[in-house]
Amino acid sequence: MPSPDFNPNTLPAVPQFTTTHWSVVLAAKDDTSPVADKALAQLCRGYWYPLYAFIRRRGHSPHDAQDLTQEFFLRLLDKRYLSAVDHRKGRFRTFLLAALDHFLANEWRRSQTQRRGGGQPIISIDDSAEQRYAHEPVTELSPERIYEQRWALAFLEQVLGKLRAEFIEAGKAGAFETLKVFLTGDRPSVSYAELAASLGITEAALKMAVSRMRQRYAELLRQEIANTVSTPDEVEDELRSLMAALS
203-227 and 143-169 are packed helices; what angle lies between their axes, rounded to 10 degrees? Predict the structure, then answer.
C-alpha cells in the first residue's frame, strides 16, 4: 500500500495514451487488431488474481476457479464480450467484473459439455494462486468488495514492480530494497538519521532520494491508471476508487 502521507492531489499530469492501453482495445473492439490483442493480453496478465479471488469467494473450488479463470480469458480474447462494451463506461476494472459475471451465469454451464479448447492460455495459473488465496484474511466481505480490494492491491503491485525494474536497470537494486519501505506504508525500523548513516550518506541526501522515489512512484501510478481507462477524464475518478478500496 502507499505510504500514509501519499496524496493523490499532488500526482503529476496524466500521461499520454499508448498502444498498451485499454483505450486501444476499445477503439479496435470490432476489428481484428494485433496491437489491441497484445494490449488486452498484457492487461489480463497483470490483473487475473482479483478475478480468481472473486470466483473463489463465490464458492467455487480451487481447481474449478483455475479452469474458470483460464476459460474466461480465452473467451475474452475472441472479442465476443468486447462487442457489448459501452465506450462511455469503458474502464477495464468494471468491464472485467461485468464480463466475468456474465460468463459465470451463462457460459460456464455450456462449457462443461462442450469446451471450446484449443486456445493458448494467456496467463499462468497454478497452485500458487490458491496459496495466495489461503492468506486472504477471514472476512464477511462480499465477492464484489474482495474484487475491488484485490484489484487495488494488484494495481499497486504492478506499479511497484515497474519501479523496481527501473532501479534494477539503473544498477540500484539494493537502494530500491532499502528505500521501498517508504512506499509500502510499513514503519521503518530505524530513523532517517540511522538509515543515512548505515548507507554512508547524509540525512538530507536520504530524504531527497526518498522524495524522488515517491515522485517517480506517483508518475508510474498515473501511467498504470491510464492503462486501464478509456479517456484521460476518468483517471481522477479511478484514482479515488483505488484509494477508497484500500481504506
Answer: 130
Which grid cell sits at 165? Answer: 525494474
What is the pLDDT at residue 55?
93
Is the pLDDT assigned to residue 168 strictly greater than 80?
Answer: yes
Phi, psi of 227 (to 5 degrees): -65, -25
**Which residues touch 81 (CB under 8 Å, ≥6 apart)?**
75, 99, 102, 103
Alpha-carbon gap, residue 116 to 112, rounded angstroms:
10
CA dist., res. 212 & res. 204, Å (int)? 12
pLDDT at 30 over 80: no
C-alpha span between 77 and 51 (Å, rounded) = 16
> What are residue 172's phi and psi, to 5 degrees?
-125, 40
Q: Which three cell numbers stand for residue 190?
A: 530505524
Q: Residue 90: how many CB atoms within 10 A of its CB?
A: 20
Which bin fits 193, alpha (ψ -120 to 50), beta or left (φ > 0)?
A: alpha
CA dihedral 50, 188, 240, 85 (to 10 degrees): -30
Residue 117 backbone zone (phi > 0: left; psi -120 to 50: alpha; other: beta): left
- Are 59 and 198 within 8 A, CB to CB? no
pTM value is: 0.76
User: 15, 226 in Cβ contact below 8 A?
Assistant: yes
Query: Which of 55, 24, 54, 17 has its CA nearest to residue 38?
Result: 24
